[in-house]
Amino acid sequence: MFFATLRTLGQLGDPAFRGLLLRSFGYAIAAMLCLWGLGWLFLLGTATFESAWLEGLLDLGGFAAILLLTVFLFPGFVTLSLSFFLEDILATVEKRDYPDLPAPRQQGFGELLAITAKFAGVMIVLNLLFLPAYFFPVLGAVLFLGLNGYLLGREYYELVALRRFAAEEAKAFQHAHRGSLFFAGLFIALLSTIPGLNLAVPALGAAMMLHLFERLRRRQA
């Protein structure tokens, strides 16, 4: 874990890695600006009151609400944007730190879709089941970190491992190293609670899991 964390932090000095982060932030900002523009056009195109000043007040209030909502949702925009660059991020890490690796296994669209859908479904269901406990500070924090540590560890592991292993081989490797993978997911979950840093968690989490995976794989070889 310590090795993987240090290698991941070192990745921030790579211009290609930083470029992918900045590009994802740029797309997220562009999406927010589009929503602001569409929201403002919608408000201007609708009339609720006959009074001009009341209508103007409603438009300003509505636009302020849109601004506030998109600010709260900005981390989600960044995460969604970064998800489209994770393969590029992994390729960038491999090119810099593991140039001896062969090209990754080709994954079909159906396989990628199944992995994403399965993870999203499990994460949503389990978090809904434990939602009442989240309102208790200590118990909620323990459950949040434990549950999401497991889920994030599994998500990022599958993202990395299935580029190199077939499904059965990846499952066996995961079982053999489940402790290390859980603590990696726990660390990623902890990073996701830090304002500002949480914006880069998808990229950092993918890079850290790749470093951990390669270290475990070479140790086992």
Tell me the Rg in angstroms: 21 Å
Q: Supply the helix-strand structural class.
A: mainly alpha
Percentage of residues in DSSP E strands:
under 5%
Tally of individual domains: 1
What sort of overall outline do the alpha carbons produce when their principal axes are compared? elongated
Number of DSSP strand runs = 0
- The low-pLDDT segments are none
The separation of the N and C termini measures: 19 Å
Number of helices: 9
Give the fraction of residues assigned to helices.
over 70%
Largest sheet: none
Tags for this model:
single chain, 9 helices, 221 residues, 79% helix, mainly alpha
Fold and architecture overview:
- This protein is mostly helical.
- The protein has nine helices and no strands.
- The protein has helices spanning 2-11, 15-45, 52-83, 86-97, 109-129, 137-161, 167-176, 178-191, 201-220.
- The longest helix has 32 residues, at 52-83.
- The mean pLDDT is 79.
Summarize this entry quickly:
The protein has 221 residues and is an all-alpha fold. It is built from 9 helices and no strands. The longest helix has 32 residues, at 52-83.
Q: What's the structural blueprint in terms of helices and strands?
A:
Elements: H1 2-11, H2 15-45, H3 52-83, H4 86-97, H5 109-129, H6 137-161, H7 167-176, H8 178-191, H9 201-220
Helix pairs in contact: 1-9, 2-3, 4-9, 5-6, 6-8, 6-9, 8-9
